[in-house]
Write a structure and sequence with these properties.
Elements lengths: L1 E8 L6 H12 L4 E8 L6 H11 L3 E5 L6 H11 L4 E4 L11 H10 L4 E6 L6 H18 L11 E4 H4 L12 H7 L4 E6 L14 H19 L3 H30 L6 H30 L13
Parallel strand pairs: 1-2, 1-4, 2-3, 5-7
Antiparallel strand pairs: 4-6, 5-6
Helix pairs in contact: 5-8, 9-10
């Protein structure tokens, strides 16, 4: 069995040597392996450290990005490079535990899942990060039906077939289990150890929550309306049309019965505005249907097996 270990790196020069030693202790002599480091525009000496490691181990591959594009893009580059039967992802900051690698592989072999996501059961993070993470995972579980406790854990293992059609951009790496489900694959979870940060500082600030919220809306749209956009935009449009129509009919009734709209001009304007907005929403939905119809010639399904 060949495994590919994919590790995005951004300014982690202090942790890389220790991380490599701990990974090698868990894979050397047990598996045929490759370690793919993606230097995502580091401004410290991370790339030089990686070059030194590469000289020691021919199983190391390095991908150097032109600049800092983000974790999703780094993982996407690693997935395209990986040659292993199983693909393992982990962070470079030593908070993910390399000792979990053998058990992740065993767990995937024993289960019928296509991927296993780590669950940081006991987190070593600031209080606010723990609270927001639990809220995030609760909302994602509730709205997508993917029953994982820790959607965004960096430590995961995948069968290669499950990730070969993934399209990662923005901050979509947080929703990989949801994207797998959209493609018809199944992701389980396993409790894993989470270490306190030993070197450096976190790369995520308050803006990640806003970005994550926007990406979450994207995932919800892709999971529920990607092939039927008119169901979303058409529903909103019809609701606007209904409310606007009721307002317009009320104004018309006043005019017929009393010969005046009785100073209801703002209501008339509101009704007309809703009718126009409703038509626009329905038009957007129809345009979306046209675009989807043009793409139907492309393969948008994934066959499990042919007997």
């Amino acid at each position: 069995m060949k495994i590919s270990i994919i590790i995005p790196v951004y300014n982690e020069e202090e942790s890389l040597n220790e991380l490599y030693k701990r990974i090698k202790k868990n894979v050397k002599g047990k598996y045929s392996y490759e370690i793919i480091f993606i230097d995502d525009g580091s401004t410290d000496n991370s790339f030089r450290v990686l070059l030194t490691l590469k000289k020691k181990d021919k199983n190391i591959a390095i991908i150097k990005m032109k600049r800092n594009f983000g974790k999703s893009q780094a993982l996407d580059a690693g997935f395209k490079k990986a040659r292993g039967e199983y693909i393992i992802t982990m962070d470079a900051d030593l908070q993910d535990e390399p000792d979990e690698i053998p058990e992740l592989i065993n767990q995937l072999n024993r289960s019928s899942m296509d991927a296993i996501s780590g669950w940081k059961f006991k987190r070593h993070d600031p209080f606010i990060k723990k609270v927001t993470s639990r809220l995030f995972n609760f909302v994602v579980r509730s709205l997508t039906g993917v029953k994982l406790h820790d959607m965004n854990c960096g430590l995961k293992i995948y069968k290669k077939i499950a990730i070969q059609d993934l399209k990662l951009y923005g901050d979509m790496h947080r929703f990989i289990p949801v994207l797998l489900r959209i493609n018809g694959y199944h992701c389980g979870e396993m409790k894993v150890k989470h270490n306190p940060r030993k070197y450096g500082k976190t790369k995520y600030g308050p803006s990640r929550f806003l970005i994550g919220l926007l990406d979450f809306f994207t995932v919800i749209f892709l999971s529920k309306f990607m092939k039927k956009p008119l169901h979303l935009f058409g529903t909103v449009g019809l609701i606007c049309e209904l409310i606007g129509g009721i307002a317009a009919m009320y104004i018309a009734l006043l005019k017929i019965l009393y010969g005046t709209i009785q100073h209801r001009l703002p209501l008339l304007n509101f009704g007309v505005l809703l009718i126009i907005v409703g038509i626009q929403f329905i038009s957007i939905g129809l345009l979306g249907e046209l675009l989807v119809n043009r793409e139907t010639a492309k393969k948008d399904y994934h066959i499990d097996k042919i007997i």
